[in-house]
Specification:
The chain is an alpha/beta fold. Helices cover about 45% and strands about 20% of the residues. The chain has 3 domains: about 90 residues; about 240 residues, Nucleotidyltransferase, domain 5, CATH 3.30.420; about 150 residues, Exopolyphosphatase. Domain 2 (Nucleotidyltransferase, domain 5, 2-Layer Sandwich). A 6-stranded mixed beta sheet has the order 10-11-9-8-15-16. A 5-stranded mixed beta sheet has the order 5-2-1-6-7, with helices on both faces. Strands 12-14-13 form a 3-stranded mixed beta sheet. α13 packs antiparallel against α16. The longest helix is centred in the N-terminal third of the chain and has 46 residues.
Length: about 525
């Protein structure tokens, strides 16, 4: 075979190989495209259900009414109520994963509303406007116009309104009605303006803090709740997970079901041990003991040199001191401070805590998992102890700074804290003593018998509004899913399908390459067997 014939045979064989390879490559490409499309059809809906859009978002507003201010909080959550598990599976839940979107403070509270009922509703209008998206609203986290009609709102009152409700029930109802109709004008689905029951407040408080601390599914994997203690105007609250207690508390336990998980909580409310009503109760007892034999009554928890006048109506027409009518309502009682290093502590122990029920704490859990709010925080912040360290020395420090403050005269206090208001300064000896005594009586302060504890002060605002909206979300219907709700089984099926398709593709590709290699080898062998003439 001459060179021209050899070139011709080579071109012919090369053309034949290309003619065979092209259809194989085309078939492989088509197979790959079909496999990719089929895989996307199977798996994309699964992952799509884990995503949320603006259309899926739901909103809720909570107003918390306190003695001297009102707090508005705007929350949002995925209306489909779906969260991703560790395996990336789109899984439905009965509870929303709530996020705080915006908050607004009103500088008026129950004390202001008593003097001007209409102020209760009108004072909320500015914050209400801030919740809605509009050209005049510069806040990015707000409720779109098409969601206002479906958004629910709540106004809740706790201890401050409870005290007022006891003293003047009709006035408390007028204040609540004033807020109700103002809010309802802006949010047609405003549910209630009401005073929370203790059980509801405690449950919302522990749920709210555990949600804020990312200790609930799906953002946390803990099945045991952090504990919460709060000191209100009227009552002291303790809310713990079941793991903390050893004594029988079956009459005070409650089951909470959140994120497809059941929790058991222990809820304890000590009435008349709140920061304001306990001082009123102590002062009323001092009044009765004195029998008005002296023109002024010595008060063991007020600074030396401080004078305090209070009417019989203010002192005895209250939830915890309405056990006598022997004084004229306009009669004025005069007190003068007589505090020493230990006098307030002794008075509080003997008068208020003589029969206080103590908890039996499970010492296998340290109290870094229990958090203090409201007045606890304010007192510890005042004394610059917002985090008591994990040893007995930390608690001794708290006791020391409180007793040292009680030793100061009123003139010394004013010169030491010139920028702090009188209504805060005059009662810090009592408030500090109450906080320490209350935590000790509850079993949270260490002794040589109970071991080493620590407790952390978090913030002055209690977390019940967050907990309320989390629990209420269970009663708000979820938005319908645009695709069928995929479960763990569907995800497994999808992944198995993808695996099988990949294996099939590799098999087809390997078979095609093998055929190409065989045909190429055939032509190469053909060239070798040709003998020249």
């Amino acid at each position: 075979m001459d060179d021209s014939e050899l070139d011709s045979a080579t071109r012919s064989s090369s053309t034949s190989v290309r003619a065979y390879i092209r259809p194989c490559l085309m078939s492989s490409c088509v197979a790959v495209a079909l496999l990719v499309i089929l895989s996307l059809v199977v798996l994309l809906p699964v992952f799509y259900d884990t995503l949320s859009t603006d259309e899926d978002m739901q909103y809720g507003v909570v107003f918390s009414v306190e003695a001297d201010h009102t707090h508005m909080l705007l929350y949002q959550w995925n209306g489909k109520k779906i969260f991703s598990t560790d395996r990336g599976v789109a899984k439905a839940t009965d509870t929303a994963v709530v996020k705080l979107a915006h908050q607004c403070n009103v500088s008026y509270g129950v004390n202001d509303f008593v003097a001007n009922i209409s102020l209760a509703g009108l004072s909320l209008t500015n914050c209400l406007k801030r919740t809605k998206c509009s050209s005049a609203n510069s806040f990015t986290q707000c409720i779109p116009a098409n969601r206002v009609g479906s958004s629910k709102s709540y106004l809740g009152g706790t201890d401050s309104l409870r005290v007022l409700d006891h003293r003047n029930h009709s006035l408390a109802r007028e204040i609540l009605n004033s807020t109700h109709w103002v809010i309802k004008d802006e949010f047609p689905r405003h549910e209630r303006s009401y005073i929370l029951e203790y059980e509801e407040e405690n449950a919302a408080m522990i749920v709210g803090w555990n949600e804020m601390a990312y200790n609930l599914p799906p953002r946390g994997d803990h099945l045991q709740l952090f504990g919460v203690v709060s000191l209100g105007e009227l009552s002291a609250h303790v809310v713990l997970g079941e793991q903390f207690l050893l004594n029988d508390t079956s009459d005070r336990t409650k089951h909470v079901h959140l994120y497809n998980t059941s929790f058991e909580i222990y809820s304890k409310v000590d009435h008349c041990y709140g920061w304001n009503e306990s001082l009123r109760r102590l002062t009323a007892n001092l009044t009765l003991q004195s029998n008005l034999a002296q023109p002024t009554i010595l008060h063991p928890c007020l600074p030396v040199g401080y004078h305090w006048n209070i009417t019989s109506h203010e002192l005895f027409i209250a939830p915890c001191t309405n056990w006598t009518n022997s004084y004229n309502s306009s009669e004025v009682f005069r007190f003068t401070g007589n505090a020493t290093r230990t006098s307030c502590s002794e008075a509080v122990d003997s008068i208020l805590f003589d029969d206080f029920p103590k908890l039996v704490i499970n010492d296998s859990y340290n109290l870094t998992e229990i958090y203090a709010f409201s007045r606890y925080h304010k007192v510890m912040q005042f004394f610059n102890i917002t985090s008591v360290t994990d040893d007995i020395t930390g608690w001794s420090q708290l006791e020391h700074v409180v007793m040292s403050y009680c030793e100061l005269s009123w003139d010394q206090i004013r010169s030491t804290y010139p920028s702090v208001k009188e209504r805060i300064l005059y009662r810090q000896c009592y408030d500090g003593t109450l906080v320490y005594t209350l935590l000790q009586a509850s079993g949270f302060v260490p002794t040589s018998q109970t071991g080493v504890w620590s407790i952390y002060s978090q913030q002055s605002e209690v977390p019940w509004p967050m907990g309320l909206i989390v629990e209420k979300s269970r009663n708000i219907a979820a938005n319908p899913l645009k695709n069928r709700p995929y479960s763990d089984t569907m995800m497994v099926i999808g992944l198995l399908t993808l695996t099988m398709l990949v294996v099939l593709f590799l098999f087809v590709l390997a078979y095609g390459l093998k055929s190409i290699w065989s045909r190429t080898k055939h032509y190469q062998n053909g060239y070798i067997q040709i003998s020249p003439d």
